[in-house]
Amino acid sequence: MTSMATASIAVHPVRSGPAHWLQSYVHMTRWELGSLRLLLPLIVALQMVIGGGFALGIGLFFDEIPVRNALFLATGVAVVTLITVGIVMGPQLVSNHKVAGTYDFLWSLPVPRTTQAAAWLTVNTIIAIPGMVAALVIADWRYDLTLQVSPAIVPAVLLTIGTATLIGYAFAHAIPKPMITNMITQLLIFVILGFSPINFPPENLPGWLAAVNEWLPFQHMAAVIRAALTEGLVDNVGRSYVVLVVYTAISALVAAWVIGRRD
Amino acid sequence: MTDRLESEGDWRFHARTVTKAFGDLLANDGITLQIRPGEVYGLLGPNGAGKTTLVKQIIGLLKPTSGELTLGPYDLIEDPDAARQLCSYLPQAQMPIDSFRARDVIRLTGMIRGGESGAVTARTNEMIEALDIGEWAETLGIKLSGGVKRLVGFAMVSVWPGRVVILDEPTNDVDPRRRRLLWEQVRRLGDLGSAVLLVTHNVLEAEKSVDRLAIINEGRLIAEGTSSSLKAEDRGRLRLQLMMVPGHPTPELPDFVQHNTRVGNNVMNVISETDATVGIGWAQELMARGVAEEYALGATTLEDVYIRLTGHTSSNGNATL
Ligand SMILES: Nc1ncnc2c1ncn2[C@@H]1O[C@H](COP(=O)(O)OP(=O)(O)OP(=O)(O)O)[C@@H](O)[C@H]1O
Ligand SMILES: [Mg+2]
Q: What is the H or E stretch that residue A219 is in?
């Protein structure tokens, strides 16, 4: 019986090109989904609780929340859930891999490294979306909102998750010590929540900080998502899209460079 | 099969003066070796000798400070993509299989390595059977014992082997019977045409199963050859092993002891065949004086060569009495 199986072990030529990339991407996505199988339901549930809880929690700041403000906050919370997955959850999963010492094997697999980053992005998207939806559904019910979902939600969500996930992925790989990675994620999320105009308008910030945020991706994430979910709350999101596309591209390049590097 | 025939040619693996510095530390210092397709090549050396560092450079996880690594026409340093496709690698570290069933992850790895679905399935079954891990085939990795995890890792790496198969301590934690099964599969990788580079601490098992071997110490390759060529210098010598009364200091050594190492309470002496009688007399006297508990006289093994060259015992140094 061995002869049959053995006979078919052909030695391949070295593969390359788009078909190889695509096939590798499919395999690595299966790998990532498989390796999160035990955690996935828990992570998704946690994201939904965080998103929903946040949406309810903000209402406690106000006696009577004006609809416009409620819309602003609800969409802000949706953005926050996406950013959290990319910048907190993603890097912590990478750290877990590092602590377990499992990258030696993963990075010896015969696939283009970029397919591993792409698979990671795919899985993070799957993790992030339920939390965002939960936040919106609960806010919608609690504050009696009227969300106007436009098709622009697709690029808006993808660009937001893409930028956040790739930034997180790049620094989680660039920093050798998982401890430091975890500290940075905590710090980043507080800085982002406190000093980026996601849940409040930029006018509330001191001038210089508002100017800095013009060049950071976070307020633009909020702008594009808000524009895709509401009508009349924000306009002129063209520049925001441009900024996000540039950020996604740069973080993809940096991530590719970081994982392609050898000491 | 046709690929295999077409691709005949010179597919030797070469390392040429490979040097790897970590700061001031030379983890590899001018290592040169070659492995032919079909050959099982053992890499031995004490902890920290630089074995893992060497194999990580082959698969592209580390970049040599200087030197060359080639496989047939491919420059493995310049082309890490090709290196990963041409070589399969079982790391010394853990395998990331906690959330997978054993059979699924072996199969998935075969697919990732470019195998065709049906053939990978057949080969997966073959590996599971050959390593006798069928009873855990549907078990999640997180529930597997350390040894079975190691065997699953070995199956993942061997299910669709590359031209070079790198195994960094594959037999760790594996029980003696399955360790024999694993060694059989290592030999079969050679028969399939792979060049096998196998890192191990188990000198005696390696002696039986490898075609050639190298001993690395402090980053340098200090001996290379077949097991019998390495033992040639020890021809005409015997090993006189003493198990000391626990805690007792090593006794004063008579002149006929040519070489001596102590690990725990185990003192290993290399003596000439012509001194066998006096050697036994000495050992018996030590037992009579209550210094030693037991002794054994036997042929020198690769272990003794290893000890002489590195000043260390291998992992099973105590088990050979
Ligand atoms: N990334 C690194 N940075 C700095 N030093 C390192 C690094 N990796 C290994 N070393 C050092 O290089 C030397 C060789 O290590 P290596 O892991 O190659 O040894 P080894 O022969 O595989 O040992 P063992 O049998 O214990 O696995 C050691 O002194 C080790 O501390
Ligand atoms: Mg090692």
A: helix A218-229
Within 8 A of B125 by CB-CB distance, chain A residues are 5
Per-residue pLDDT tens digits for B260-278: 888 788 888 889 999 999 9
Task: State ipTM.
Answer: 0.85
- Ligand 1 pocket at CB < 6 A: B 22, 25, 27, 45, 47-53, 92
Ligand nearest to the CA of B47: 1
Q: Which residue of A has its CA nearest to B52?
A: A104
Separation CA B169–CA B177 (nearest Å): 17
Choice between B178 and A178, residue whose per-residue pLDDT is larger: B178
Residue A98, classified by CB atoms within 10 Å of its CB into exposed (0-12), middle (13-18) or buried (19+), is middle
Cβ atoms of B231 and B40 within 8 Å: the answer is: no
Give the pairing type, strands B237-244 and B266-272.
Answer: antiparallel
Question: Which residues numbered 196-255 in A keep a CB inside 8 Å of some CB on B?
Answer: none
Tokens standing for B67?
């030197």
Residue-level length of chain A: 263
Parse chain A into domains and list their residue ranges: 19-261
What is the rounded distance in angstroms from the CA atom of residue A9 to the CA atom of residue B115? 8
Length of chain B: 321
| Distances in whole angstroms, Cα of residue A261 to Cα of each of A116, B17, B81, B185 | 14, 23, 12, 34
Residue A11 has phi, psi (to 5 degrees) of: -85, 125
pLDDT tens digits for range B18-58: 999 999 999 999 999 999 999 999 999 999 999 999 999 99
pLDDT digits (tens, 9 = 90+) for B119-136: 999 999 999 999 999 999
